[in-house]
Amino acid sequence: MASWLTRSTAAAAAAVLSLALAACGSSDNATDADRVPVGTITTVTSEPSPEVTEASEGPSDEATDSGHSHQAGAVKPQPLREGEERMTLSMPTAYTPSAPNGTGTDDYRCFLLDPHLAKDAFLTGTFVQPGNPAVVHHAIPGAWDVATPAQLLAARVEGIDAALRRATGDLLDDPGVGRAAELARTAADACTAAGRPLYAAHAGLPWPEPAHLALWHAVTLLREFRGDGHIACLVDAGLDGIDALVVHAASGEVPRAALQTSRRWDDEAWDASVDRLQARGLVDGTGAFTAAGSALRQHIEDRTDELALGPWRALGEEGCDELRSLVRPLSKAIVGSGTFGVR
Question: 156, 257, 272, 326: which is deepest, by most CB within 10 A?
């Protein structure tokens, strides 16, 4: 039983994965291992009070000019006042910015974090801590004043539709796409939300139409389900964000230069990670794998695959084979188009 699951699901997952490339705004070979949690600290009070509704003190105007010529200094959270409490919200997964369309200097993204409050509360201040301060130069708490969640979701689906049509053309009109969407949804519906924050967030979104967008959404759910499991495996292995990148580079699949520059880590931070991993016996002084390091990475990948098998078991061997055959022409067209920077 396990042998066909591993073989068939690996083939199906590889074939459908490229369908989700339209959701990736970067062409820098990002993988699950490159995701790094970053945090947002929010100060709230549960009781309305005129004395505590002013925003907490933040950086001065001089530190937030639009020229991006200098970086604001660190801002410390202010002491709590009566009736306030501090809540720390963490990003479920990292987003690494990249220049739009390969040009420009800014990549704006909106992130929604649920504080899970049991009753209404007043927000009295916010403090944002980026995972890599050298990359993030602005945080805009009032993003929803610019565009609503519904508008952003609509724009996202519109962009995905355009990108997929540009990459695959008339293939999206094939009747087999509808059947592929049904099969992929069967697998996606078998995913579980416990311990899978990014999957859970996507699972709360409405299913788009027509069939090729439903297929894309299902594949996105399956991808994030696996990605959440991968993060759990990295954490269990004692690897933080930059450690995961160094381990990825040690595999030889992606060169250090590509991983380091795309994530804006300097040589000092990278070399410090190599030193930590060398002390653990996982890499040598050049950053290349030792036997123990290679074995650990293989264990992480194998365990990630095991944790991702549930949806594919629900689909079954025949369903996995059928799904792969249906989406294979689409994935080949996407890769062949070069639209998303892969060939």
Answer: 326
For residue 61, the one-letter residue type is D
- pLDDT level of residue 295 (50, 70, 90 thresholds): very high
C-alpha to C-alpha distance for 242 and 245, rounded to whole angstroms: 5
Give the C-alpha separation, 231 to 241, whole Å. 10
| Burial class of residue 19 (count of CB atoms within 10 Å of its CB; 0-12, 13-18, 19+) | buried
At 183, list the tokens: 């099969």
Give the lowest-confidence range in 139-148, 187-196, 219-228.
139-148
d(CA 23, CA 159): 9
Separation in Å, CA 210 to CA 3, 119, 178, 183, 273: 35, 38, 9, 15, 46
In angstroms, the first-to-last Cα distance of the chain is 34
Enumerate residues 6+ apart whose C-beta is below 8 A from 89: 39, 40, 41, 42, 113, 115
12-31: pLDDT as tens digits:
555 555 555 443 433 344 44
Nearest to 16 by CA among 232, 265, 332: 332
Q: Which two tokens stand for residue 283?
A: 């890499």
Amino acid at 32: D
Q: What percent of the chain has pLDDT over 70?
A: 65
CA distance 154 to 220: 16
Lowest-confidence range among 40-54, 75-89, 104-118, 247-261?
Answer: 40-54
- H-only helix segments in 102-172: 149-168
324 has a pLDDT exceeding 90: yes
Rounded to the nearest 5 percent, the helix, strand and coil shares of the chain are 55, 5, 40
Range list of H helices, 193-308: 197-203, 211-236, 241-250, 256-262, 267-279, 291-307
Q: What is the pLDDT of residue 54?
A: 34
Indicate yes or no: pTM above 0.70.
Answer: no
Identity at 160, one-letter amino acid code: I
Cα(289)–Cα(248) distance, integer angstroms: 10
264: left (phi over 0), alpha (psi -120 to 50) or beta: left
